[in-house]
Amino acid sequence: MTHTLTLGQDALDRLMPMHLCIAQCGLIHFAGPTMRKLMPPCAQGVEDIFVEAQGAASGHVIGAIRGAAPGDRLALRLRHRRQLMLRGHVVTPGFGGLLLNFGFGVSLSDAVAAFGLTESDFAPTELALELMFLQEANRAVQQELARFNRHLMLARQDAEREAHTDALTGLLNRRGLQAALRNALDPRGGMGGFALVHLDLDNFKQVNDRLGHAAGDRLLGDVAHVLGRVVRSRDHVARIGGDEFVLILGGSWSCQALTAIGTRIIRGIEEASPEGCGISASLGIVLSAGYAADAIDRMLEDADVALYQSKRMGKGRVSVAPLPLEGGPRPLTAPR
Hints:
- Its EC number is 2.7.7.65.
- This is Putative diguanylate cyclase YegE.
- By secondary structure, this protein is an alpha+beta fold.
- The protein folds into 2 domains: 9-126, Haem NO binding associated domain (Beta-Lactamase, 2-Layer Sandwich), CATH 3.30.450.260; 166-332, Alpha-Beta Plaits (2-Layer Sandwich).
- Helix content is 41%, strand content 21%.
- The protein has helices at residues 9-15, 33-38, 61-67, 108-115, 128-163, 174-185, 204-211, 213-230, 255-272, 296-312, and strands spanning 19-22, 28-31, 50-52, 74-78, 81-91, 98-103, 194-202, 236-241, 244-250, 280-287, 318-320, 330-332.
- The strands form 2 sheets. It has a 6-stranded antiparallel sheet with strand order 2-1-6-5-4-3. The chain has a 6-stranded mixed sheet with strand order 8-9-7-10-11-12, with helices on both faces.
- Strand 8 and strand 9 (244-250) form a beta hairpin.
- The longest helix has 36 residues, at 128-163.
- The radius of gyration is 40 Å and the shape is rod-shaped.
- The relative contact order is 0.08.
């Protein structure tokens, strides 16, 4: 048994708020309330609203609509917002012309944002809002995960920085020095040559004995400032315990240049000495040339040997060790 069903425009608006009724030539008869929000105010035909799915304004939109077979999906883009793709189908109603009904598909979130759409703009049976809620929930979860990962990364960086930093002076500690030396010796991205300076304060015990440990701590901070004025951004300074410091000075160096830098350091430390304590410094220096990438301990030992050569020769001196194959360190006295 066949019945004729006649729906008024009000019923179509409620059932299919994104419908569009057009003549065979493409002129618009009427449109649903949500479709009217998408249309330019002066739109008279489908060419004023849509372009083909490929985004080209070829003027053949009505041909694509008429050519859509029953049951085929029709895909069109909004002429004035071509990032928004509408998908739907077309039927030939009993009252003549063509009746189209659309949905947003994957463009839903962008369309809601672009046109300020709400729940009332969709049919009661439309799952668009549920899908949009899932998209928003997924986006919120992704944002929260990204924020958590960012916080975790920053916390890890803070923990690593704290683990590599001397609390008293803010310089690298022994662990930080080891990491800096590994990077400096790495043939894939190291400094391409550097000088390792081992420094030990002379007569430091007198400060602690005569003025107290607080004065000793202040002096260590002053020494850190002296060393900070000598180094460049590519260099590293570490306090490895007590009154011992190590510097990594990137680049190629001559013995004369290193002696000059050592002299500046000694004079700066002597100027920072509390009155009557006679604080100075002894330095031992080795050059990275000739050391393998895993020879960190040997470099530190050779610098320590050079340092105590300076101690034995009267303190307040700079000793530069020769390359590893040449034997023991060669003392160079700093100008006083």
